[in-house]
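S., here's the first fold you wanted:
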Amino acid sequence: MENIYTKRDLENLEDRYEFLFPVPYETKTTPDQLVEMKEVSFAAITRQLVNDGFSLLVCIPHLPVVKAFKQAEVLSANHSFRFLRIPHQDYQAAIEECLMEHANSLTFFLVQDVRQLQYELPKTSHESIKLVNMSRNELYSFWIEDRECTVARWH
């Protein structure tokens, strides 16, 4: 099942779309399109995105150390969190298993283009990562347990 929302639909909501849809981030820019998918296979979608060159971005707390992400590129860090990038060529089964095992305690998503992406890491576990400069990008976020995927597209 799939629901598609336009930018106009999202702007007419009573609250910010990030608070009404299952996304693990905040943005200043409303996406041009948001697709909400239910009853999806995380593994199948992820495999297709990795084949298409998407990168996995993960915001993890400093502790505990997650071995599957040891070789990941550290994009940024603060006193509480590290923001990691796993490029499509380094994505492997151990990473996917780790995501599935720790899905409720990690913030992660797959993004098409990381070159112009800017972000602000959360300072506490009660905050979300803030994404900036999302123009011409596509971002997939997952709620594995509920078999849901939310796709945000900026043209």
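And the second, which I think is the more interesting of the pair:
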Amino acid sequence: MFENGRTHIDDAECKRRPSTSINSEIIANVNEYILVNRRITIDEISSELDIFHGNVHKSIVDHLQFHKACARWVSRLFTEEHKGKCFESALAFLQCYQNEGNEILASIVIGDDT
């Protein structure tokens, strides 16, 4: 750049299209869709409003300052019966561990709800 005789570091004026793709009307429409349905996707808003995916994303994140929150499954509340069964199982594993030591750990299969 400076090899070509440029002497300043400021951006030169260029003939680009002005950024009119995101305006207050579009932001208001996107906000309205989100407030009606909090689970709506960017693709759904994009197709409904007939605007680009990137512009919808920019409106949501930069202008409306929303962010995605991921729902996570949590265990249901245990009844007294379930709590008793969990306690019995834990006590049985503890007794096996005391009797057999670390060898019992290799035979236990665990998993989660996912």
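Why I say that: The radius of gyration is 29 Å. The chain is about 45% helix and 0% strand.

Talk tomorrow,
H.
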